[in-house]
Design brief:
By secondary structure, the chain is mostly beta strands. The chain folds into four domains: 124 residues, Immunoglobulins (Immunoglobulin-like, Sandwich), CATH 2.60.40; 107 residues; 47 residues; 62 residues, SH3 type barrels (Roll), CATH 2.30.30. 14% of the residues lie in helices and 46% in strands. It contains three helices and 28 strands. The strands form nine sheets. Strands 2, 4, 6, 7 and 8 form a five-stranded antiparallel beta sheet that branches. Helix 2 runs antiparallel to helix 3. The longest helix is centred in the C-terminal third of the chain and has 25 residues. The termini are far apart.
């Protein structure tokens, strides 16, 4: 008898619960591409006036990554429109089943029934790209700037800065390159920016890759001509090293002027004018005395680029004496014993 009474109470509890929130999916895409960022909107109506908020419990979703658990909310009259962003991660995907519930800021013992929305399966398109695909799927993708410099005897390094809209820009990856990586990135659901490097074969005259343009529904080719810049390695103007090749030209001109002056002075036997030869010679000495060699402390990190928290490709195991190739505000450009080019922080240098 007691068991029957308890069972009856359990069956009657839902009847005393009030359903005050009604939610449904709206603006669901008809198809998505694997790797695409897309959004869905939930349209919610609450019959309770004094609500503190609407809570959503997502479950049973497949092939998706939720990018924002706090929705972008918009009020339109008595309706609440909540936008959520997802990343498609698999060849098949299903939207989450959702329980929507409300919280009231008025103290009450009333229990409100949650609204249940079943998630539907999505039509997922899987791309079949060529080998030059960058793994970028976006509404738009644009190169801001790029630079190429020598990495070692067999490779060049290309550094590019790019922006994209509606893209998982951190997924950028290339095939057939010697090294690659992200130096910095900022991303959001709509706008993102990345600084990326690739180390490629020195014999390549172009670095080409494609991305999938969601707006045009096709692959778009990006081409970077390989023009090696000995004076700069990075794609930000404020990181441009001092131009030491110009110093070399200036020193040659100064020595040539000194040589001509000495010849003329000896031909005319005006030896007193030899004092003027001191100036161009002193200038040349000052250029080459400006520490062509630099001492690097043991345990110092050698960076691929002069960027804080950038890629480190070597750490000194002892005190190094390296050739200085240039400098920027906080970094010194050095040539390693294997002829690779790297950057060390100013604080890691020591007196010779």
């Amino acid at each position: 008898m007691i068991k029957l009474l308890l069972l009856t109470l359990l069956l009657l509890i839902p009847l005393f619960a009030n359903k005050v929130v009604y939610t449904k999916y709206t603006e669901v895409p008809q198809r998505v591409v694997k790797g695409e960022i897309f959004n869905i909107t939930l349209k919610t109506l609450s019959t309770v006036q004094n609500i503190d908020g609407v809570n959503y419990n997502f479950k049973n979703y497949q092939g998706l990554k939720i990018l924002n658990h706090i929705p972008q909310r918009e009020y339109r009259g008595k309706y609440i429109f909540d936008k959520f962003f997802f990343l498609t991660t698999r060849n098949s995907a299903k939207l989450p089943d959702i329980n929507a519930s409300v919280e009231s800021y008025m103290e009450s013992d009333t229990e409100y029934e949650a609204s249940f929305v079943a998630g539907e399966k999505l039509n997922v398109i899987t791309l079949n790209p060529k080998k030059n695909f960058s793994n970028i799927i976006a509404d738009s993708f644009e190169l801001v700037e790029y630079k190429t410099t020598a990495f070692d005897n067999k490779h060049n390094i290309v550094v590019l800065v790019a922006t994209a809209t509606n893209s998982d820009i951190k997924s950028m990856k290339f095939k057939g390159v010697f090294k690659q990586g992200i130096e910095s990135s900022t991303s959001s659901y709509k706008e993102s920016r990345i600084t990326y490097f690739v180390v490629i074969d020195k014999r390549k005259e172009n670095f080409s890759f494609s991305y999938f343009n969601l707006k045009r529904n096709r692959f778009t080719l990006i081409n970077i001509p390989i023009i090696v810049d000995d004076d700069s390695v990075v794609a930000q103007s404020d990181l441009k090293p001092k131009n030491q090749s110009h110093d070399r030209i200036k020193s040659i001109i100064a020595l040539f002027i000194a040589f001509i002056a000495i010849v003329v002075i000896f031909m005319r036997k005006k030896y007193i004018y030899l004092i003027f030869v001191i100036f161009p010679i002193a200038y040349v000495i000052s250029i080459y005395a400006a520490s062509k060699e630099i001492c690097i402390k043991e345990g110092s990190d050698i960076h691929l680029l002069p960027v804080d928290n950038g890629t480190i490709f070597e750490t000194t195991t002892s005190e190094y004496h390296l050739t200085q190739e240039g400098s920027v505000e906080n970094f010194i450009k050095v040539k390693l014993h294997n002829n690779k080019i790297g950057w060390v922080k100013n604080e890691d240098s020591c007196s010779i």
